[in-house]
């Protein structure tokens, strides 16, 4: 996220994007429909400045989780009570074993506070308390020939690797393979503060996702906000079938206004602080517009985190 803290949760941490089916607000994750388990750390490796990819061996979650869903991870060592609360992390990808069976999940996080600092200290062989899958996964890809554009700010690229691979029919998630797949590979517009924070770009390109980069300081790609990359495409007449954004609220607000101006369908995956992940604490609510024009607070962890962009009340947020 350009100019906004990235990473996990709690007063000193911000959640990485996680998200559900756009447009659907039906609760999908409850304590009864998700699992609390111990997951073994397989890898915890740096992939960019202060950014790590954590691989957790947990076959039951790996078999069930879908792109856009997330899991909660308690970042301290086994038996520790500090940090007490879990942090939410979007699925980055599912790892298959030698027989092609889901065996582990990857998440990517940025170290910004006590929680993510504790997580960065975990070593292979340690066990972490996790629960999930949580939230609602993204739905099927859009029809039409207009293509799909992902717009990611900061650590907001994390849900798009599995989503792109799923929609291209490259891998099944949650036991389902997309059929028919997207007719063309998606494009990801990826903005960060500087080149040192670019994380996982090779993973996306290896998956067949086209990546265009923007940096606030001009150290890589377009010099400016990532919404500028999308604006140039729309100005020259491109009409994507869908735009999906994940990143800080000012970026998502600007993205919503930009796509509305060009009448392009847009979904956003919200980054809200979370404490429980299944709707009990109401710490992650967001203002969602209702059919009668009123605004109601909805739990991002259960009724989101992905919403139609126009459903979110952005009136209190200035965009860039």
Please, what is the CATH homologous superfamily of the largest domain?
Nucleotide-binding domain of ferredoxin-NADP reductase (FNR) module
Low-confidence stretches: 1-16, 18-33
C-alpha termini separation: 12 Å
Shape: globular
Q: State the strand order across the main sheet.
A: 4-3-7-1-2-6-5
Q: Structurally, how many domains make up the residues? A: 2
The CATH C-level class name of the largest domain: Alpha Beta
- Portion of residues in helices? 10-25%
Encode the helix/strand succession as letters: EEHEEEEHEEHEHEEHEHEEEHE
CATH topology of the largest domain: Rossmann fold
Write the layout of secondary structure elements.
Blueprint: E1 35-48, E2 51-57, H1 59-64, E3 70-73, E4 87-90, E5 93-96, E6 102-110, H2 114-120, E7 127-134, E8 148-153, H3 160-167, E9 187-192, H4 201-206, E10 210-215, E11 222-223, H5 226-235, E12 242-246, H6 249-261, E13 266-269, E14 285-289, E15 295-299, H7 300-303, E16 306-308
Parallel strand pairs: 8-9, 8-12, 9-10, 10-11, 12-13
Antiparallel strand pairs: 1-2, 1-7, 2-6, 3-4, 3-7, 5-6, 13-16, 14-15
Helix pairs in contact: 5-6
């Amino acid at each position: 996220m350009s100019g906004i803290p990235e990473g996990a949760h709690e007063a000193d941490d911000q959640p990485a994007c996680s998200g559900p089916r756009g447009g659907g607000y039906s609760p999908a994750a409850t304590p009864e429909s998700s699992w609390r388990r111990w997951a073994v750390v397989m890898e915890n490796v740096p992939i960019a400045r202060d950014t790590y990819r954590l691989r957790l061996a947990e076959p039951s979650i790996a078999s069930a989780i879908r792109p856009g869903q997330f899991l909660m991870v308690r970042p301290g060592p086994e038996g520790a009570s500090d940090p007490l609360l879990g942090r939410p992390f979007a699925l980055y990808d599912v790892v298959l074993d030698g027989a092609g069976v889901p065996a582990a999940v990857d998440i990517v996080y940025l170290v910004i506070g006590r929680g993510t600092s504790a997580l960065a200290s975990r070593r292979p062989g340690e066990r972490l308390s996790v629960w999930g899958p949580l939230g609602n996964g993204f739905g099927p890809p859009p029809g039409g020939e207009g293509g799909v554009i992902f717009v990611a700010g900061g650590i907001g690229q994390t849900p798009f690797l599995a989503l792109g691979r799923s929609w291209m029919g490259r891998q099944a998630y949650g036991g389902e393979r997309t059929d028919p797949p997207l007719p063309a590979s998606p494009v990801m517009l990826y903005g960060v503060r500087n080149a040192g924070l670019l994380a996982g770009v090779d993973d996306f390109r290896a998956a067949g996702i086209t990546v265009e980069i923007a940096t606030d300081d001009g150290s890589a790609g377009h010099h400016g906000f990532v919404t500028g990359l999308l604006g140039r495409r729309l100005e020259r007449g491109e009409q994507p079938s869908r735009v999906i954004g994940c990143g800080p609220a000012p970026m998502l607000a600007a993205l919503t206004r930009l796509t509305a101006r060009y009448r392009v369908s847009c979904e956003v995956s919200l980054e809200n602080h979370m404490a429980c992940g299944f709707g009990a604490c109401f710490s992650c609510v967001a203002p969602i517009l209702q059919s009668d024009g009123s605004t109601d607070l909805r739990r991002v962890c259960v009724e989101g985190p992905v919403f139609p962009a126009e459903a979110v009340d952005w009136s209190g947020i200035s965009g860039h």
